[in-house]
Structures are given as C-alpha cells and as structure tokens.
Design brief:
Elements lengths: L7 E3 H8 L6 H7 L8 E3 L17 H6 L20 H7 L4 H6 L1 H15 L3 E3 L15 E4 L3 E4 L4 H4 L8 H4 L2 H15 L3 E7 L1 H10 L7 H11 L5 H23 L3 E6 L7 H22 L5 E5 L16 E3 L6 H8 L4 E5 L1 H6 L2 H14 L7 E4 L9 H13 L6
Parallel strand pairs: 3-6, 6-7, 7-8, 8-9, 9-10, 10-11
Antiparallel strand pairs: 1-2, 4-5
Helix pairs in contact: 6-9, 9-12, 10-12, 12-13, 16-17
C-alpha cells in the first residue's frame, strides 16, 4: 500500500521506465520537454482522513452513478488530484506531466493524495484524456504554462489510422496504475473511477494541435464533410469512438469501477453538430462499454453543454454530469428522471467563505432532490489556487448534511 511517504525516490530510475513511452526526440525538442529531470524528488505527504468508514461507503458512488437512491449524497471532484494541493505541487513543479502520469509510482501517489486528505467517495486515476492518442500514432505532450501540444495529423494520416489498438503496448502503465489503485480503493473502502475523452473532444484537440478559442480547423472540416467534399471527419470520429470505447473497457478490466466520459469541448458544439456528430460517437463509446461490462456505470460530462441538455436526456450513459452554468433544479426538470451529478461553481470553492461553501453544498443537494438523490461534484474542475481547507469544507458538509428538515 502506498502510504504517506518521507523517503526519497531517484528520478533517474523512473526516467528509465518512462523512456519506453516518451515522445520522439524531435517532438520533445520542439516542446522543450527534453530537459533532464532533477536528481531527487521529495514525495509529498498528506494527512489521513477519518471518512469512508461505513460499510456502504465502498460502493456508494457506484450505486449513485447507476441512478440508485443512496443513504447520503456521495462526492468526488473533477481535478481533485491537482495543483491546488501543496503535496501535488512538489511533483508538478519538478517533473513533466507525462512522466508523472506515465510512471506508476508517481501516478498512484498523485491519485491518492486527495483521498487521504479529504475522504472523497472516489479515487480517480491521475492521467489525461489525451493519453491514448499514441495508440492512433498521434503524439502529444502537456507543457507547463502552455497546455497540450499535439502533432496534428493530415487528412491523409486520418484515413490511414490503425483499426487495432494495442493498449498494453502503447500505454502499458495504465494497467499497472489501475490495478494498484483498485487495491488501494478496496483497502480505503472507496471506489475507483476511470475516465476517457469523448470522440469530438479528442478530434478537436488533435486537429487544432492545442487548446483553441474558435476551433476553426475542426469546424471547417465538419463543413467540408457536410457538403460531401470529404469524409475525413466522419472517418476520424468513427475510429476515435472505437478506440475510446475499447480503451474504457481496458480501464475497467484493469480495475476501474466507473467510467466518466469528458466532452471538454462541448462549448464548441452547436446543438445541430452535437446531435449529428458528437452524440452518435459518444453513444458508440457507451455501447462498446455496455456490451462488455453492462453493470459498470457510465457518466457523461459535456462542459458547456447545458444549452442542449434536452438532447442528452435519451443518451445511453447512466448519468449526466452538469456544468455550473445551469441551475440544478432547472436541469432536473429538463432531464426528467435521468440521474445527474454536479454542479457547484468552482469559483465558490476557490473564493467562498466556509459558510458560503457549505450553503452552496446544501442548496445543490436540495435542488437535486435531497440527500442521496444525486452525485455531488463541481460543474468543472477544481481551480488552481483553491485553498485546500475549502475542499475539506465541501466534502465534510456533503457527508454530514441530512436535509432541510433534519
């Protein structure tokens, strides 16, 4: 079991393991990520929490994600393993992202820090939605201060993408990370969450080559597809859906108990393009998962997708995760009986007082139907600079809140 650690790990040993999965030298040189790592890294420490001791805590998140009424409202947070934690920054300030996420010792420790500190109802693997792209021959890196940088494929490349995906060969670290985290989750009496990026989001990232304000390359390719000039976009989406669905299954077979699909670029979609392109591709991902693992709940999160919630109502995902731009009670009306998670504004967590955070938690739970009626989360990730104590306020209030009349 990975415990709060005080000894030193030599980065050179981890670097040897990382070499097999690193990007090409030319690409690394372009990204400025080929600098030698520090000689030593002091592993961060987190205090042990007192939560997750009830018998039902082991699978309360799983049951809620299936849409079951549970004994209290469970909670986890997007980006709960992140730079707001000082222990996390002891790694992120010294070790490049891909090395952290692709070296099992680092990834396991970073996944566990927030659970040790706050006792959330789920551990989520420290990784990235872009991690499986090398399975398609698409290389990437995540550069500090810049974000994702991807070697964008050409139209010709996209028509020649592989149809078989060798996860244990291209991303061998995933299996070990999840296997170890599953053991930890069982010992800590909590659940293990896996995740994937949605096909449209990975397509847009790949085509733009980086974060993009207007997503022009992707949208122009969609228009070329619409007028019959080319079928490249449709082909790319189909290939991505197959790969992502199989990658999610690989995560489940390695230990994940819940899968969240991140449509991080939903704000770039019109309702029409969501219906014609993004939604069918996500439905294919979900079908692949459910065909092999029908009892594993799937959560779908469309960041910026609250404008077309009605179009998500009939999706095959077990639960819809809401962004912070929609009122929870309104979302409940628009989605009907569809199970939901979300959707606190991350800025309240960052800037709010203890009383404001606790009141926001109670309001969200009440609007969702009362304790045990949904899965509490933020409406986006924990913001960098969020006080660590504020996360504790949120988790503690969620777990102790019994409802308006109690």
């Amino acid at each position: 079991m990975i415990r709060s650690i005080t000894f030193l790990i030599l980065v050179t040993e981890a670097a040897m393991a990382f070499t097999a999965t690193a990007s090409s030298p030319r690409f690394n040189s372009q990204l400025g990520s080929s600098a030698a790592p520090p000689a030593e890294v002091v592993l961060g420490k987190t205090e042990t929490h007192s939560h997750c001791s009830a018998p039902g805590d082991r699978d309360i998140l799983i049951r809620a994600a299936r849409g079951e009424k549970v004994e209290r409202t469970p909670v986890w947070l997007m980006r709960q393993a992140g730079r707001y934690m000082s222990a996390f920054r002891e790694y992120s300030d010294k070790i490049p992202f891909r090395e952290r996420s692709e070296t099992p010792d680092y990834a396991v420790e970073l996944s566990l820090q927030c659970h040790r500190a706050y006792g959330l109802d789920g551990i989520i693997m420290f990784s990235d939605i872009l991690t499986p792209l090398p399975c398609l021959g698409i290389d990437f890196d995540v550069v500090k201060g810049t974000g994702p940088v991807i070697r964008s494929p050409t139209d010709e490349d996209l028509m020649k993408l592989p149809r078989e995906f060798k996860f244990d060969e291209k991303v061998p670290f995933i299996r070990e990370i999840l296997q170890r985290l599953r053991t930890e989750a069982e010992e800590m009496n909590t659940s293990l969450i896996g995740f994937v990026g949605a096909p449209f989001t990975l397509a847009a990232y790949s085509l733009e080559g980086k974060s993009s304000k207007h997503c022009e390359t992707t949208k122009s390719l969609i228009l070329r597809n619409d007028c019959g000039e080319t079928q490249v976009f449709q082909t790319f989406m189909h290939t991505l859906a197959e790969m992502i669905g199989q990658y999610a299954c690989h995560q489940i077979e390695s230990g994940a108990e819940v899968i969240q699909i991140f449509e991080s670029w939903a704000h770039q979609l019109s309702p029409d393009n969501f219906e014609r392109y993004a939604k069918p591709a996500v439905e294919r991902v979900t079908a692949i998962i459910k065909d092999k693992h029908p009892n594993v709940p799937v959560i779908y999160f469309a960041n910026g997708g609250s404008g077309f919630l009605e179009q998500q109502k009939d999706m095959s995902a077990d639960m819809i995760c809401l962004d912070w731009a929609v009122d929870m009670s309104e979302a409940r009306q628009r989605l009907g009986n569809k199970p939901v998670s979300g959707n606190l504004d991350p800025s309240i967590l960052k800037y709010g007082s203890k009383e404001q955070i606790e009141q926001a938690v109670r309001n969200c739970i009440d609007k969702a139907g009362g304790p045990g009626s949904h899965l509490l989360n933020l409406g986006h990730g924990v913001m960098q600079g969020t006080p660590e104590q504020n996360v504790k306020y949120l988790v503690d209030e969620c777990k102790r809140y019994k409802g308006k009349n109690i």
